[in-house]
Amino acid sequence: MSAAGARIGVITFPGSLDDGDARRAVRRAGASDVALWHGDADLHGVDAVIVPGGFSYGDYLRCGAIAKFAPVMTEVVRAAGQGMPVLGVCNGFQVLCEAGLLPGVLTRNSGLHYVCRDQWLRVDNNTSTWTTRYEPGAELLIPIKHGEGRYVAEDPVLDRLEGDGRVLFRYVDGNPNGSRRDIAGITDERGRVAGLMPHPEHAVDPLTGPTDDGLGMFLSALDTLVAA
Amino acid sequence: MTDPTREAATQDPATPNGAEPVDSVEQAARTPELDQPYRELGLADDEYERIREILGRRPTEAELAMYSVMWSEHCSYKSSKTHLKYFGETTTEEMRAKMLAGIGENAGVVDIGDGWAVTFKVESHNHPSYVEPYQGAATGVGGIVRDIMAMGARPVAVADPLRFGPADAADTRRVLPGVVEGVGGYGNCLGLPNIGGEVVFDESYARNPLVNAMCVGVLKSDELQLAHATGAGNKVILFGARTGLDGIGGVSVLASETFSGDETGSGRKKLPSVQVGDPFTEKVLIECCLELYGSDLVVGVQDLGGAGLSCATSELAAAGDGGMRIDLDTVPLRAEGMNPAEILSSESQERMCAIVRPEDVDSFMAVCRKWDVTATVIGEVTDEEHLRIDWRGECVVDVPPRTVADEGPVYQRPVRRPAEQDLIAADDANTLSRPATAEELRETVLRMAASPNLCSREWVTGQYDHYVRGNTVLAQPSDGGVLRVDEETGRGIAVATDCNARYTRLDPYEGARLALAEAYRNVAVTGSKPVAVTNCLNFGSAEDPGVMWQFQQSVRGLADAAAELGIPVTGGNVSFYNQTGGDPILPTPVAGVLGVIDDVTARIPTGIGAAPGESLLLLGDTREEFGGSEWSRVVHGHLGGTPPRVDLARERLLADVLGIGSRDGLLSAAHDLSEGGLAQALVEMSLIGETGARIVLPEEADPFVWLFAESAGRVAVSVPRGAELKFTELCSARGLPCSKIGVVDDESKALEIQGVGDIPLSELREAWEGTLPRLFG
User: Fold this and answer.
1) Active site (annotated) includes residue B74
2) Do A113 and B181 touch (CB under 8 A)?
């Protein structure tokens, strides 16, 4: 498959906000972007899926709790089971946790405020589908913007994540939300499904973001799709 | 899914009795002598008499509610109208050339080229935000965003000029965090980047915080929507949230009178009920509206804000070519037993009203269903002259719509220059004792940087999303926010809002000109060309002749300055009665300026250190001007003398030079000099750029005056190696004073000012960034 032949879908729920940004990042990486609608029980033949940031369904009840019942998510869960690469950013990370594709939950920031700032991250894993373009230990500057991004899981879960090398990114130079063990992003057992609170789609062009450090995530997935 | 507003509505203890007889038009004609509570609704005796004259009978309860909210100060501009005319009188055809819509529409619209147009507006939500900071601020954002949607535009950014009492006052700790959280909570959830705004502290705002909200929208210039109801037989569709009991009477009670009024008058109508917002509903409404516009399913559209359905129906009908009939029984409600007056004046948020051709109604409804937006046909446009509203089979409103919407009372309030103005002017700030030694100057730089009005706003702006939509090229702490509009061509816009109300207090005419000059300059330093002006005029009581003098002078100052700058005032907002007891707020005419930049990659950032071997230059003239200065406040608690001189020809020249410098890549950073003068500008350029600099002041200069004077028309710029000669030649060819004041030093981690000493950036940062977190947690 050529890069442009790779079709990456971006879901729009009512209340999704960074869907346009995720689609722009996909195009910037050289792939084709496909809009997916929450009510569609169909992934329109895409090769990978991004669940973007925002406040799906207003984030009422609990962040991501309603989105997991969207018809499109049934298809995402099924496709992920078959190995399709899936990336959840911010609210998308919350949705993937709620949908059971990733362990743990995201709770209210320990400082109780919404935080928007440029955040340093360290790459812990460069073997997942979404992180192969990075050097292990590399530091990235990527925006965060969330009120409920404190990653929480029980110790055995965290131990297993760390033991299996499934922590993708950790916060460095200050933990912005009180996440346990400074965890900013994780992946599933197969390294195909990834979720993170920082917004790589807002770091694809130094004109509109602090860096282009986030582009590597989209290029990483594209490498896998092209090689497949 | 929970709906917080529904809970609020059903908990209201005062449930009206649905079995009460309807006060119909027929009933009103039969009972002309009935005593009506018009005074409690904020209407004066002669206003009530005029309503009776217009109708030839007493108004029904529903009509009385409509007239009272629509004739309130907030909706009718009855005290300001006579002064606001001056904006139109001073706008020439040449200035109007790029205006697609102006004063009187929901928001001004300006053609920015390449087929794009931009609409922008600022509105106040001051009183509700004092009563209930979170919801007041949140619904302020929601309201201005709907104004922008009503023009057919996609909202693309917000910015909030905020003013509070002293930073260390107990009540500020109640109001500020709530307001900031409300602005962020609503705007972040809408997916609108917050790219600017202001945070100002002053004693005069202690019980009258100012929460102004700006929204910017973008549309194709041929996609403009207007608020008019035309074409008999066309349907009137109400869509968005359901109508509840929130905000009933909010407009007339909260904006027309001070809080001294009784709260028991006519029961719950007098309660200062602040509306409750649901940003998710609004986000969906935005997408729904844009799809409706894109499918050409709308003939006219109006948002529901202050005065709710009263306003939307009467304004749509008044701007149309006929009448309108509304059946109130069809309005979807979220509270039991609402009567017609309540349905008409409810300020429930997140609602819009559209005029739709009958053959398009099905398609319209299909789009609304896709977005899960409730939409209901509530009436139709008629070829009659009246707006007629029925409820339970009886006519409860039958009025000529223009008498409600356009022909409200106009007052010539007494205007008198207070005698104390002369005393204030005579209290010269230039005679205050000054720091003399290097040590004292150094200490003053740090003290100023840490003061509440000059310190970093990160505690506030860090709670706002400025990245969403991926088009933000500059945002706070830059002087102006810059957004990309067209990804193909790089065309973009800039916005800034400003007002130094201390200057306006000293001289409202010159102060207003200074406010506009600063906003204009803040757009220019980004490399953008200023093209249009909006405003939000916050003042004390309209019944105080001294306040009306401040108002009149400020309007004239703004209008004259706009004319001298050659850019039109496209709209504005007036908020009177910002006073508690006898003390009005400082007169605060906030000026907002919109700019256009041909290619956003040429934008000029604020921080130094981006290019190698930069020189620092100061553009403009520095004079011994300390009247109203931040230094006189911080060090002496003083407000007196005269504000800095304004030279608008110089401001235009400055903007031209900055525009060329940006286009030709001659500038690597630029920062406007305003509160705190050169010292503060250098502190910010160093800290934002995380780079030190060495400053050498001109030999003949008095270091104190150079560092802290607030002379207008000045900008500090950094020029990369190789561009210096070209840039200084550009300045001298055009007669713009330009002096070299130092160099950027990549190695140095300090701001070194000759005659003052070295200040490590770490020490400056601690001073600049520590203040708000220390105060607000």
Assistant:
1) yes
2) yes
